[in-house]
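Protein modeling request. Please complete all fields; requests missing the sequence field cannot be processed.
Requester role: graduate student
Desired output: 3D structure, token encoding
Chains: 1
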Amino acid sequence: MRSEGQRRAGFWAFRTGGLVGLAVVAVVGASFVLPDVLNTKATPAGSAQATAMGARPGEGLPPGSAVPPFSTRDLLSGKVISSKTVYGRKTLLFFSEGVMCQACFEQIQGLQQFGAALAKRGIQLVSVTPDGPSDLEQAAQEYGITTPLISDADRRLSEAFNTLGKGMHADTPGHSFALIYRGKVLWYRDYSLPPYNTMYVPPKQLLADIPTT
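Delivered output (213 residues):
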């Protein structure tokens, strides 16, 4: 099992290796003409800019909250996934940073391996990332993902569940799970936040954390 640091090393590095030299030249050149840009600090999740991107205070949607109406499609099968189609089945929505986070796809892999355990409890897994369809499809091929994947490039679904700006970036989710059933949020947890501070949850631990009722 890879360390947390290894997981966080994005697996898309192979796609950008050829651009490293150009990026270095651009940064060096910019240092002479755009010092203020280079000194800009990362935007904290609670800032006005983050709020404008959709980040809101609090951790996701509390249990008992109504499931926001949504309708989208599984990138892999093309089937509609909506608040109506999943109404009668417990659905575990996994919100993550997407392709920039290797651990996030290892998380999906791990949960797929526990598919029988999830099914025994009547739970289906649906993963949501902020990536465009082409990048997400390539990631699915790289990691052998077969469970439903949602491309949430416009962040609407992530914003509706109040997952944005909770992790390292203001415009992406952290590492959160929402168990929904019959129009209600049964359980929600963001493992990128204290006291967990992780981007990978061992599947056995996650199954133990999810309430059985």
